[in-house]
Amino acid sequence: MEAYKKWDRRGFLGGLGLMAGSVFSGPKLWGRPQTGAAASRGLSRNVYEDLGVTTIINGQGTMTMLGGSLIPPEVEAAMDAASRHFVSIPELEVAAGKRIAEMLKLPEGYSALVTSGAAGAIQCGISGVLTGDDPTLIQRLPDLTGMKSEVIIQKSHRYPFDHQIRATGVKLVEVETREDVRKAVGPQTALMFFTNYLNGAGRIKVDEWVKLSMEHHLPCFNDAAADTPPVSHLWDYAKMGYDLVAFSGGKAIRGPQCAGLLLGQKDLISYALLNNSPYEDTLGRGQKVGKEEIVGMVKALELYLNDDHEALTQEWWRRLDTISRQVTRIPGVSTAYYIPAIANHVPTMEINWDPRRVSLSPDQAFQLLKDSKPSILLEKTRIGLAMNSFMLQPGEDKIIAQRLTEILRAHRT
Ligand SMILES: *Cc1c(COP(=O)(O)O)cnc(C)c1O
Fold it and tell me: Measured in angstroms, how far is the CA atom of residue 354 from the centroid of ligand 1?
């Protein structure tokens, strides 16, 4: 999937209160003075402008490359409060994990861990399966002497984040059929791994995969990083029997950008923590999780669970309608809608035009929007543009509508 190639981990600014404002906190415009916590600390100007970096109107969705998502003010406040005290990080991790498992009503025997992101959750989750709580093995990773060394994955489920699996030292064993799985399982098999958004691409589907793992008495991992909404996905896979499930904290959940969730069996969760920061001489020491992220993640999840998801979806449609109504007044311009089945499962709009009536390639349209001030990022398609609206701030739908209309009009034949 092309989009993943563009993504990476982002620096963290939330603890400084720099991300004030949200979908729910009234209009927030670019280059305007900071309000609230930021202003009270003397941050009077736009912090990005200060660095000469242009802010972006994000019609692409929860892209790590663009900063993921924007935290709600309540999360900012929780992180701010967390930044004012020292605590034992392992104690905080365990307490937060317990609270998260309760909030999500995970099955008996499940807990959770706040990680640096879904990618971090994959790496420490698998590390834990390999090492258990043995300090010698934890220190030895990624040298797998004395440990299991293979992870089974469907060939069609290989993706950029399997780097985090391979980072533990294991070899990926690719399979396509149930029969392949049977042949692949051996004394060296540590785990079966599933890439949730590729459910459609593999022959073995999400529910069958976990059943197979049970037949073979192997732990099973599902990377569901970007797969909320719907919110029920947060517990669906644990209930299905997955032993470990990863989510991004800083995508649709709108938690801290450098946070994620590992949900799973209590023992595996405790082994994952032992392989992670703050513990030293661990593979995961480089995936530090701060007290601010841990507290912010709990708060974000609480808000997300209480959101009116129906109303939010209506609002996302309304924004797309605003843009559609305006651009389709131009002869030859049309819009169409769909909702991706999984990952960014939100209203999505294609904007297409008859090249005989508007002489502009998708590349040119994309670039002109990108070069606008503020910069507008939509997706390019083969014949036009596409966008979603769930990461837009109030008023940005109108700005997109206006700028896009200008650009398309200027190229009428
Ligand atoms: C975004 C994503 C990740 C990485 O998540 P982070 O929270 O940024 O670490 C991993 N897997 C999939 C499928 C993703 O979409």
Answer: 36
Query: Would you say residue 176 lies in a domain?
Result: yes
Distances (CA, A) of 256 to 14, 63, 67, 236: 7, 14, 10, 23
pLDDT tens readout for residues 193-228: 999 999 999 999 999 999 999 999 999 999 999 999
pLDDT-based confidence at residue 13 (cuts at 50, 70, 90): very low
Same domain assignment for residues 226 and 277 = yes
C-alpha atoms less than 13 angstroms from C-alpha of 347 in its C-beta half-sphere: 20
Looking only at the bridges linking them, the beta strands covering 189-195 and 150-154 are: parallel
Cα 407-411-413 angle, rounded to 5 deg: 155
pTM: 0.89
> CB of 198 closer than 6 A to ligand 1?
no
Residues 296 and 329 in one domain: no
For ligand 1, atom 13, name the residue with the nearest CA. Answer: 225
323 and 184 in a common domain = no
The closest alpha carbon to 193, from 241, 226, 152, 237, belongs to 152
126 near 151, Cβ under 8 Å? yes
Q: Does the Cβ of 61 fall within 6 Å of ligand 1? A: no
Q: 6 alpha carbon to ligand 1 midpoint, in Å?
A: 12
At 193 the three-state DSSP class reads strand
Of 66, 156, 248, 261, which is best to mutate to test ligand 1, by the most ligand atoms within 8 angstroms of its C-beta?
248
